[in-house]
Amino acid sequence: MRQDASLTLRPIVFLLAAAVIAPALIYPIFLMKVMCFAIFACAVNLLVGYVGLLSLGHSMFFGMSAYVTAYTLKEWGWPFEIALLCAVLASTVLGFIAGAIAIRRQGIYFAMITLALAQMVYFFCLQAPFTGGEDGLQKVPRPVVLGLLDTADDKALYVIVLVMFLAAFAIYHRTIHSPFGQVLEAIRDNEPRAVSLGYKVNRYKLLAFVLSAALTGLAGGTKVLVFQLASLTDVNWHMATEVVLMVLVGGMGTVVGPLVGAVCILAMQEYLAPLGEWVMVIQGVILVTVVMVFRRGLVGEFEVWRARKSSLTEAAEHPGHQERAVGLAAPKGANPHR
Within 10 Å of residue 324's Cβ, how many Cβ atoms? Predict the structure, then answer.
């Protein structure tokens, strides 16, 4: 168990070191965008990768949080800390309501219910006067955070976004490696057995859904701080499907897969932008390739390859234990449902 934990923490330490060095090499705004969507992707992965519930409606939490943050900052002039807290709280409450409705169904029915709820929230935001309609809320001011860091400076903003990203990732990492996370995996792998063991399955599902919505709300509020904008794009269901694509490309049910997926998809959008709408075609080709060739995602396939290599090396060093190389299981975190 300790060895598995060390193997899991190693790439995380590497990513943290990369996050500190990256601003000297890459445009900081792009890095902050990656961190915002990485939080979003981790929240979706918590639900689809560790509970087995595919949500197509998480854009409602992302968009609603963005509107609450933008409105409280721009119209009421509240401190960013309070605005972000209100945004996360709004997403949490909305997540509780949506989760209480959706978790009673599974599979495609769960996905369609979340999609329908997201569409309802979308049309509410389109008609509500405080959202600015199709124009959205623009030129949201960047406040001074904690009375020390002026977010008008991109370097100070990067530090704040990085801290929020680390906090969100710590919550996500601790959740999936806790007894609660193990129960979620048990529900994903065999729900009837989990019920027979006495677990209140719907209660666990609802708690995971609410936690996922809260993390998504944090991502939406942080995004407003970076781009100073909340619009209908944030609450559109396309936003939710794009994040699901990030999870699939990175590796569903893996710890760092959502981060890798967010980097891949956003890098394509950033650096292939001159190709116009062809970016969508390229994303489609990549999705088909991942589904056909890398069914566990980039990180999932890498973890399986590493586990096989480690087992074969151990078998070569200890010939009496060759049987360990037979029947290799996928590493912890890789989703067995393929």
Answer: 14
Structure letter (DSSP) for residue 178: S
Q: For 149, which DSSP code? A: E
Q: Are 40 and 240 spatial neighbours (Cβ–Cβ below 8 Å)?
A: no
Please state, as a whole number, how many other Cβ atoms lie within 10 Å of the Cβ of residue 325: 15
What is the token pair recorded at 141? 């001011």
How distant, in Å, are the alpha carbons of 33, 79, 143, 229 from that of 146? 22, 9, 9, 22
Phi-psi region of 77 (alpha: psi -120 to 50; beta: other; left: phi over 0): left
Pairing of strands 229-230, 149-150: unpaired
- What is the chain's length? 338
Average pLDDT, the chain: 85
- Token pair in block for residue 8: 């899991």
Looking at the DSSP bridge assignments, the partners of residue 230 are 137
More confident residue, 125 or 271: 125
